[in-house]
Amino acid sequence: MNRSLNRQTLRPLRLLTLAGSALLAAHTAQAQTSFSMTYTNGASYNIAGKEPTASGKYPVYVHIGGTGESYNSAWASAAVNAAAAKGFVAATVQYDNATFGNCSIIGGRAKGIFDANSVNSAIAKLCSRAKADCSKGVVTGGLSQGSIISVLSRNYDSRVRASFGQGTGSTYTAAYNLSSCIADGNHTQPGDRLRIINGERDMFVGGTEAIARSQAQLVTGLTCSGQQSCFRQNGSGWYIVKDYEVLDLYADHCFMGYGGLYGTQCSGLLVDSGYQNGSAAWQLNATLNWLKTFVN
């Protein structure tokens, strides 16, 4: 696509394409039923989910929001809705996300969600649902701090088979360096079960394409020097989203939210339907299809 095209030109072109994609998705999606639960990690936290209405047993998708993001934000809810439509018991999980933290702090939050040995963890509550069968596999996704928790999830539950993260890296401003837990080899999730997606202007991961790339390479252990994307044969790897690929032409930390401003949290943004329904490797629909290849 020509980068010189202005946003007035791009929007109608994309919207026409997306209308067809959304119509197709509506015809193929499974009917869903909402549910809510709570779990305990020092305090009580909420779980909001969707699951297929049809009878049967399903694998589980867990979504984790970012720092300051509502657990049932527009972005988190879009991810859960899409996952449930693809045949997951899907849920977004609240946690103590008012602040960021080091590996110890964020690891403690991840354990509270994914501790397979605790009856009080979020994963224990989800796996206890009548339609959930965690032996079919658990997969995870998240944004920012939630993406770190997503990557760390297998440290606490071996049933987690694959994870994706958006806005993922080891350095979040000069105050935090998470390489001791998030760099490839320092987390239990193998690099070939990760997909990392960073915007080229992600201000928290670094603010430039080169830094966003280096951070994705660090987490996944997969290097493609100077490239926009780098994927293994099984679809794991990373992608750097460019400005011209998103509707508001600004691929920042919340690139999937149309109309976002620099530094704005994703909780208040409308989710771009192109990001939800697109087939490119960086888009939600394609990423959830990739996650589904790892479950029964």
From TrEMBL:
What top-level branch of life does the organism fall under? Bacteria
Which residue positions does the secretion signal occupy? 1-31
Keyword Signal belongs to the record? yes
Q: Which UniProt keywords apply?
A: Signal
Name it: Alpha/beta hydrolase
